[in-house]
Amino acid sequence: MEDDQVTGWQGALRTGLGERVSLVPGDRSAHARDEGTPLTWVPGAVVYARSEGDVLETLAVARDWRVPVTPWGAGTSLEGAALPVPGAISLDLSGMDAVGEPDPVGFTVTVGPGVRRLALNRRLRPHGLFFPVDPGADASLGGMAATNASGTTTVRYGGMRENVAALRVALADGRVLTLGSAARKSSSGYALKQLFIGSEGTLGVITSLTLRLHPLPPATASVQLAFGDVEGAVTASVTLRGLGLTPERLEFVDAATVAAVNCHRARHDPEAPTLWAEVAGRDRADLDAQLALLREAASLHGGTPVGEARTPEAQSELWAARHGVYDALRAAWPGHATRIGDVCVPLSALAGTVAVAQELLEEHGLTAPLVGHIGDGNLHLLMHAHPDDVDTWTRIDHVLHALAAHAVAVGGTCTGEHGVGLRKRTYLRSEHGDALDVMREVKAMLDPLNFLNPGKVVGDPALLPAFPVSDHDAVGDTAADWRPDVPARP
Amino acid sequence: MEDDQVTGWQGALRTGLGERVSLVPGDRSAHARDEGTPLTWVPGAVVYARSEGDVLETLAVARDWRVPVTPWGAGTSLEGAALPVPGAISLDLSGMDAVGEPDPVGFTVTVGPGVRRLALNRRLRPHGLFFPVDPGADASLGGMAATNASGTTTVRYGGMRENVAALRVALADGRVLTLGSAARKSSSGYALKQLFIGSEGTLGVITSLTLRLHPLPPATASVQLAFGDVEGAVTASVTLRGLGLTPERLEFVDAATVAAVNCHRARHDPEAPTLWAEVAGRDRADLDAQLALLREAASLHGGTPVGEARTPEAQSELWAARHGVYDALRAAWPGHATRIGDVCVPLSALAGTVAVAQELLEEHGLTAPLVGHIGDGNLHLLMHAHPDDVDTWTRIDHVLHALAAHAVAVGGTCTGEHGVGLRKRTYLRSEHGDALDVMREVKAMLDPLNFLNPGKVVGDPALLPAFPVSDHDAVGDTAADWRPDVPARP
User: What does the record list as coiled-coil region(s) (chains A, B) (predicted)?
Assistant: First the structure.
């Protein structure tokens, strides 16, 4: 498309940002889906920002023309946070990928929002440091902060909320805030940094992050423990905590899932509720002592060690059944799409919630791997069905809905680590009560024109602003297709 | 005072709250000062709240009559957060002191805001649990959350921000929010809980807290290490972190202070920059290994062990020089008043900041103990002078001002753990830039009438609302004495 053909807000973007604005169908389609939401919403333009100035220029045009802007990091979100409003702007931050020099004394590094997790850790490794938050996907750090991501190591290191020291954020009105600092603590003023962590681009656009780093542990070891029942596995994980033992990772997989992985990988792991724990230590003696405590805690609750490993290779092999769940699912059900349930409950409600999940699956005639970051009380159901199998998707919706409602009812949360996006909004009232209204007041205060990732988190898609859809918006859906509460199947 | 004599807003409080409202001079004077601010501002009434309903009733009267309300926990604040507006309402929450049954599986307990730290830990001890945040003073949990308190154990467990699972907060408009949950993590909605932690009663009144608990460590040991210079002590504390060793406490005291304590307690500790570390372990072997690492890290940077202890009694004795700083100061300077400086800097700026503090003291001809929660980069200067010694207080002001400005200039914060109150407001613009304006927008959104602890944190005392001072306000100062930026000396 020639520049002189581009008019309206797309023309204004092109004027300010030149070739960093793409209207090419391929680029737009590449920003139309995330990894978990069965919707295809094609943006009207993609801005490939290279600097904070590009972000501000994009926001200025979007503000002037009232065009929604949705930040895009790596597109690995699961609940729709990164999906653009159809026909509007996808603000791709992947080019803002500078990694500063790590500070080995202050244990921090400053990165652009587009830096990805695995690339960052490759850069940090020679310094003996790492960034611990591990959501599984190779997500961008900006996206991870925006959704308050966490994962397998959160039991030991916390999630993004605990590991972002400072943020720079561009606001809807063009101000840029620096929030937090490299100091390890502060009681100075309101915690605005925390307000932006988890706000999914609805309050501002993250343009830089200062992250807390940790030393690579001198030595690690892993153990796999099979239990007689789910309750035993859960109780053992609580006992561990009571003993003051904090593993690097503490993961749970149910019996049916171990069986599925056995089948897929020709393994012979006991088909029982299973825990995996990785511990870090100073030396072999320290690891030995921790593994002995782990075995002891397990045996108190009917758990038996079925494998133990110390070398990286052996640990990798030991964890195969945990890490192989998704692959086994894909292999067992070729052509199926997946949808991952994600709830987090108080540890005292964890065993009961596992039971509820299993009952719900049985009641609706479904099978799905149940895995959990069990030390945090965080459970995932890996649902799957053929994209066209409307009946099964309806039953999946029932199960995931009932599970989220149960999590809230027992004092937990509808989303442990995947964010709210489009699909968890329906639970916010029951989870937060009147606080949802205050969240909406915060949104209205910081984005009165409602053009920052509108409709997400606390937003109501029925209240989306009208904006001019350009003549050049030839491909994809339009804003009229915005039906997030009745998602089309893929 | 007879009930029928009470009119105006005090009468309205009495109508709603009966005997829980005190207009007695003694009660009012007891709420006129905190532990660190040389100001006496006598409230016009004290409400002794016993329930969330009492808090709501107080807020309703205050809202109707536009009378400022300042929550009061234990009165241990150091920067003026708990000082009432002269003639207005002090809302004493110390009677809301219920402690719920600890949840030994979820590691939580729910308490009223008036529960004090030491009482809570006495209740938790038989359960093998404790609440780790230790600001030194026997503060109330509500006050600790309101100022985002931390302290000696923060290096290991974090501060209030990391250890409050959920809050109930009464808003200016009478809504009551439940924020957070007993689930260990969530990515559901905006982090309003974090916004209220550290807001010092300016955004709402905390009526209940759910706290994260930790298992009492099976065994602990402590070591005292003397260094050739400050830099060695600081670098050793960084080396420890690099080795993956996280002590329960890691404290620093400068050489002059060790000398002062020697003198006061007839001790013979080496008069050198000194670190104390307490480590927790599974058993004796684990403690031995950690102590060996500690000694090794110290010796790399010119540090020598001067004492080691394992029993509670011996550890108490070992820590005496650290814990005796304040007493030694009081003994050496009878009749002096104190003022504690509190800054926190990135660890990479810590040694330099200690040097700056020492130079400032020398330049202004002052002596003051310098102590630090060194693992967090948090430094305190314990300034002292006779209350009437205007010249010395002026020099103290210069030193503390220069130190706070330095901390902000090197990327740190003007207040590590004491909050903003009245006296740190002057640094918020340089520390937060435009974010200060957004903080003020948050304040205006949640408290448009500006009656919740007005003038504190982000507030401007010049913009204090006028309110009717009752005829019964016979004792104490009036709102006209509100001159926080030019504080009177005690």
Answer: none
Which residue's entry shows tokens 């792991």?
A269
Q: Which two tokens stand for residue B55?
A: 């808090």
Neighbour order of strands in the sheet with B45-48: B21-22, B45-48, B89-92, B69-72
- B187, B216, B429: which to substitute to probe chain A, counting the most A Cβ within 10 Å? B187
Confidence at residue A477, expressed as pLDDT on a 0 to 100 scale:
43
Nearest CA in chain B to A127: B242
Tokens representing residue B270 in the block: 């080496």
Cα–Cα distances (Å) from A484 to A85, A329, A440, B441, in that order, read 11, 26, 19, 32
Q: Which residue of A has its CA nearest to B175?
A: A434
Q: Quick one: pLDDT at residue B39?
A: 83
CB burial class (10 A; 0-12, 13-18, 19+) of residue B161?
buried
When CB atoms are compared, the residue of B184, B243, B419 closest to A377 is B184
Tens digit of each residue's pLDDT (9 = 90 or more) over A457-481? 999 766 676 776 654 444 444 444 4
The mean per-residue pLDDT over the stretch B220-246 comes to 92
CA distance A324 to chain B (A): 25
Q: Which two tokens stand for residue A178?
A: 């620096």
Rounded distance between C-alpha atoms, residue A285 and residue A293, angstroms: 12
Minimal Cβ distance to B457: which of A104, A183, A189: A189
Estimate the crossing angle of helix A8-17 against helix A52-65, to 10 degrees.
160
**Domains of chain B with CATH codes:** 1-95 (3.30.43.10), 108-215 (3.30.465.10), 219-325 (3.30.70.3450), 333-431 (3.30.70.2740)
| Closest by CA position to B187, among listed A223, A15, A79 | A79
Residue A243 DSSP symbol: T
For residue A180, what is the enclosing H or E element? strand A176-180
Assess whether pLDDT exceeds 70 at residue B247: yes
| C-alpha distances in Å from residue B396, one per residue of B382, B399, B420 | 10, 5, 18
Q: Which residues of chain A lie closer than 8 angstroms to B139, CB-CB?
A: none
Q: For helices B325-332 and B255-265, give the axis angle rounded to 10 degrees.
A: 70
- d(Cα A144, Cα A381) in Å, to the nearest integer? 21
Residues of B in contact with A243 (CB under 8 A): 215, 218, 282
pLDDT tens by residue, B153-197: 999 999 999 999 999 999 999 999 999 999 999 999 999 999 999
* Contact with chain A for residue B416, Cβ under 8 A: yes
DSSP B261-321: HHHHHT----SS-EEEEEEEESSHHHHHHHHHHHHHHHHTTTEEEEEEE-SHHHHHHHTHH
Q: Give B116-155 pLDDT, tens digit per residue.
A: 999 999 999 999 999 999 999 999 999 999 999 999 999 9
Sheet with strand A108-111: strands edge to edge: A108-111, A205-212, A164-170, A176-180
Looking at residue A243, its pLDDT comes to 86
Q: First vs last Cα of chain B: how many Å apart?
A: 30
CA distance B19 to B200: 27
Q: What is d(CA B22, CA B17) in angstroms, rounded to the nearest whole number? A: 10
Interface of A with B in 282-321 (CB under 8 A): 282-283, 285-286, 289-290, 293
Interface residue A429 vs chain B (CB under 8 A): no
Closest CA to B285 of A282, A455, A430: A282
Beta bridge partners of A90: A46, A70
Per the structure block, which two tokens stand in for A469? 């859809």
Q: Distance (Å) from the C-alpha of residue B105 to the closest C-alpha of chain A?
A: 5
* Pairwise CA distance, residues A21 & A18, whole Å: 6
Q: Any CB–CB contact under 8 A between B428 and chain A?
A: yes
Count CB atoms within 10 A of the CB of residue B226. Answer: 22
